[in-house]
Amino acid sequence: MKTNLLPASERILLTLWVGALLVIGFIVAPALFAELDDRALAGSVAGSLFTLTSYLGLVCGSLLLVFNGVSFRCINWRAVVIVSMLLLVVIGQFVITPMVADLRVQGLTDTPRFGQLHGLASVLFIITSALGLLLVAAGQQGRDQDRSP
User: Fold this and answer.
1) pTM of the predicted model, to two decimals?
2) What pLDDT, on the 0 to 100 scale, is given for residue 88?
3) Any alpha helices (H) in 24-111, and if so which ranges?
4) How far is CA 83 from the centre of its chain?
5) Which of 48, 50, 70 is nearest to 58 (CA)?
6) What is the pLDDT of residue 149?
7) End-to-end CA distance of the chain, in Å?
8) Which of 6, 11, 125, 146 is at 20 to 30 A from 66, Cα to Cα?
9) What residues have CB less than 8 Å from 68, skipping those under 6 apart?
10) Domain segments of the chain as ranges
11) Residues of the chain falling short of pLDDT 70
């Protein structure tokens, strides 16, 4: 039972994290900006959803990293991808987001700096999503290859 529970838990966590990334980033946020006339409101709601997604990612990613360590007891490509995703989330949430929020409070949303930071946050988000999709696409077969001698 233990051998089945760990891979199932990993799949659920990965599905939750990557699913949230894709739904919030590529469906909900664009829909907010398309449907709401107030761009500030759309940005505020999207920002709150991205924050929730970041914290979800930190929890899921940390657990995935622990489970990966329990399963393999060594560094493998999955661990490197998960750590990369976690680092991107940390940079986005705790470095870039506060800078964007500060510019927003100052009313500087139409400045080049705001656009640059927002663009950088978007690029980090897209890379995180792509790495998550890589893990999903590798599936169980990728885990089996990691285990072989």
Assistant:
1) 0.89
2) 98
3) 29-35, 39-72, 77-91, 97-105
4) 11
5) 50
6) 46
7) 24
8) 125
9) 10, 76, 78, 79, 82
10) 2-147
11) 1-3, 140-149
**CA–CA separation, 70 vs 132, rounded Å?**
20
Name the amino acid, one letter, at 62.
S
Residues 46 and 126: their CA atoms lie apart, in Å, by 15
- What are residue 23's phi and psi, to 5 degrees? -70, -50
Could you give the CA distance from residue 50 to residue 97 in angstroms, rounded to a whole number? 10
The residue to which tokens 């949230």 are assigned? 20
Q: What gap in Å lies between CA 101 and CA 104, rounded to an integer? A: 5
Q: What is the pLDDT of residue 1?
A: 44
Looking up tokens 């978007």 gives: 122
- Confidence (pLDDT) at 141: 57
